[in-house]
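All the exercises in this workshop are built on plain-text protein records. A learned vocabulary of local backbone shapes supplies the integers on the structure line. Once this layout is familiar, the rest of the handout is easier to follow. An example says more than a description, so a record of this kind follows:
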Amino acid sequence: MTSISALNKLIGICERYAGAHGLRYNTVKSELLVFKAKNKSYKVPPVRLNGTPLKQVHSFKYLGHWVTESLKDDLDLERERRALCVRANMLARSLWADYTQGAFRALRTQYNNAFRALLGLRRYCSASGMLAEAGVDSFTAIVRKRIASLIHRLHDVHNLNKPNS
């Protein structure tokens, strides 16, 4: 396989350069990822770094982004989806009682900007029009519904604690 031969030559050049400059590659942290062409699999002979065979992996994290053998972004999108879910749940379950109007406006603006980004819209397009067209509640509507839900739950608890007449 000529590409493996070329890879081994390149690794040899890198090893000599590192050695000449008092450096050494960490073979424990080094891995080999072979990109797949469509659904093909390849039997790759061992590739060595400093005499140690590199572990072949299907994916690795590089600068916070998952790189996979298929070059698909599904793994990275799943990581981002989970992170978004965690943050959204934290926001949804927060009960703020003491805040400035500026802090509240900044959160509302970020909510609108997130939707603009997800929908690929211009930064300064109408938030109310965008949300109405998408069939999504505005930030203020969500806050009102959360307050109404809290009042309703408190009312139910109050009625449960009343003695029977």
